[in-house]
Design goal:
The complex is a heterodimer of chains A (about 260) and B (about 250). By secondary structure, chain A is of the alpha/beta class. Chain A contains eight helices and ten strands. In chain A, the strands form two sheets. Chain A has a six-stranded mixed sheet, with helices on both faces. In chain A, strand 4 and strand 5 form a beta hairpin. The longest helix of chain A has 20 residues. Chain B is mainly alpha-helical and about 250 residues long. The longest helix of chain B is centred in the N-terminal third of the chain and has 35 residues. The chains are: A alpha/beta (about 260), B mainly alpha (about 250). The structure holds adenosine-5'-diphosphate and magnesium ion. Chain A: This is Bicarbonate transport ATP-binding protein CmpD.
Chain lengths: ~260, ~250
């Protein structure tokens, strides 16, 4: 099967300062249709940059991105991104209004009645049925994140891009959202690229894991665990140790960008 | 209710002071007409006043609309281009302190005495504060919201209409408020100073005419109408608009 998403030699540099650099350099990987891909790395290693390039918010300085064989560059609803931050809903629209607006913008021909029915369906999927008429300022952080998911799914993206989506939640809320995300993934079969710096989150969710260091893709690991994955399984602990050792080693080596590229 | 009462009290007290100042000072009707004289003038000339008010408002409405569109286009261009933004910031710094009425002589040179010159002054007076507010409003839109719009496939005019406008509505209303005040002042001044509307009308022109004919109560009547319109627009149009939109949004933003 041909890869669904293909990233080829992707480079994005935000301007140089002596030996330090910012961005990503010559990143290549593939994602299969329906796959749940995890991207992990320390803060500042270029994870957000990668997602923003795929989403089309940044224009790369080199390389290309193919979706289902076709090159993509401008933003579009086929790659829907949930960014960091809780200010992603339009404050002048109700929760349901936000979802209807998203669907209407993507699909102009569907009647509003129909869209409202659909919006209710997506709200139900994320457990926010009762909150459709509320405005964003009336929702808690966790509810907003559910709402982001509902809106993202409502436009039927071919790839869902998630940038540390549960970063602002406490441990319990985080686990609940991870379970919800897995459940939605099972229902919709959407291809997902999830960026995180949380090892547990990455292991619990992903089929495959890309490890980034200083803007380069350093390792690709297949997640050997069967689902559902529990923290206290022996195999889980073992894989956790392996992944954290890799991250630790990359840190100790403390590569400059030039080193990383020359290797 | 309480506010209306306090306003009525204020009006009543002012009238009282005015009348007693006239009686104590013994000024002639030509210098300081009495309240009753002005009221009579207001009543007798109500058609004339109404006509001139309508004329002024028509010019302002048109001028404000032109300034609004112009400021919107400039603000969007500022968002799109760094270089343009720099240029406009400089132009604005130069133009902003220039009172709109100061451009009237130039306007008369270019457009002659008449409605066109008055409209030019109105547009010029309103466009800079409008632009300033719009641009500030656009810049205050959270990046994430703009990107959600782009992610949904919106760009250019559609992004402006569906995301940028509603997101910066409080600033846009604030701009309209300042723009309106400037336009109102400018139009009265322009009509007044040279009778620039060329005798077609307007409240400024009305004042000019009444002073010329030494009908001082008429001058005062005109001034009262000018104040009244200013207050009416402020307290009705903008308060209502704000209640409908901004108050709700402000809660939303907090
Ligand atoms: N718009 C930008 N301009 C300049 N530097 C940037 C910009 N965005 C990100 N960077 C820099 O690029 C590097 C990678 O950032 P990012 O992709 O956000 O990392 P991550 O998401 O992994 O924390 C960081 O050093 C960051 O400071
Ligand atoms: Mg990031």
């Amino acid at each position: 099967m041909a890869p669904f998403v293909r990233v080829e030699n992707l480079t994005k540099i935000y301007g140089r300062t002596n030996e330090a650099f910012a961005g990503i350099k010559e990143v290549s990987f593939e994602v299969n249709e329906g796959e749940f891909l995890g991207v992990i790395g320390r803060s500042g290693c270029g994870k957000t940059t990668l997602l923003r390039c795929i989403a089309g918010f940044e224009s790369p300085d080199g390389g290309k991105i193919l979706l289902d064989g076709k090159s993509v560059s401008r933003p579009g609803p086929d790659r829907f991104m949930i960014s960091q931050g809780l200010d992603q809903l339009f404050p002048w629209l109700s929760l349901k209004g936000n979802i209807v607006f998203a669907m209407k913008t993507v699909n102009k021909r569907v009647a509003i009645k129909e869209l409202q029915r659909k919006a209710e369906y997506y709200l139900e999927l994320v457990g926010l049925s009762e909150w459709g008429d509320y405005y964003p300022y009336q929702l808690s952080g966790g509810m907003k994140q559910r709402a982001f998911l509902a809106r993202a799914l409502s436009v039927n993206p071919r790839v869902l891009l998630l940038d540390e989506p549960f970063g602002s939640l406490d441990a319990l809320g985080r686990k609940a959202m991870q379970d919800l995300l897995l459940q939605l993934w099972g229902k919709t079969g959407t291809t997902i690229i999830l960026v995180t710096h949380d090892i547990d989150e990455c292991i619990r969710l992903s089929d495959r894991i890309l490890v980034f260091t200083k803007g380069t893709l350093r390792h690709t690991l297949l997640n050997p665990l069967t689902r559902p994955r529990e923290y206290d399984d022996l195999a889980y602990r073992e894989f956790y140790r392996k992944l954290s050792r890799i991250l630790e080693r990359d840190k100790i080596m403390n590569l400059t960008w030039a080193d990383a590229v020359l290797r | 209710m309480k506010r209306i009462f306090s306003k009525l009290t204020l009006i009543f007290t002012s009238a009282l002071l005015w009348e007693s100042a006239r009686i104590i000072g013994g000024y002639s009707e030509l210098l300081l007409p009495g309240v009753s004289g002005v009221a009579r003038s207001l009543w007798m000339e109500k058609i004339e006043l109404l006509k001139n008010t309508a004329f002024s408002l028509k010019l302002i409405g048109f001028g404000l609309a032109v300034a609004f569109v112009l400021a919107m286009i400039l603000a969007i261009l500022c968002m799109a281009s760094r270089a343009f933004q720099g240029l406009i910031t400089d132009v604005m710094a130069v133009m902003h302190p220039l009172p709109g009425i100061a451009i009237l002589p130039v306007a008369i040179l270019w457009f002659g005495i008449g409605v066109k010159s008055v409209i030019f002054v109105i547009v010029f007076s309103a466009v800079w504060p409008l632009l300033n507010h719009f641009y500030t409003g656009f810049r205050s839109i959270p990046k994430n919201q703009l990107e959600v719009g782009r992610n949904l496939g919106l760009s250019g005019v559609k992004l402006a209409v569906y995301v940028m406008l509603p997101a910066s509505l409080p600033h846009i209303l604030g701009g309209l408020r300042t723009g309106w005040a400037r336009a109102w002042q400018a139009s009265v001044a322009a009509e007044l100073v040279f009778g620039a509307a060329g005798g077609h009308g307007g409240l400024g022109w009305y004042l000019y005419k009444k002073r010329f004919m030494m009908e001082t109560p008429g001058v005062f009547a005109g001034m009262i109408v000018i104040i009244a319109i200013g207050l009416l627009v402020e307290y009705f149009v903008f308060s209502i608009l704000e209640n409908l939109t901004v108050k709700k949004l402000k809660q939303v933003i907090d």
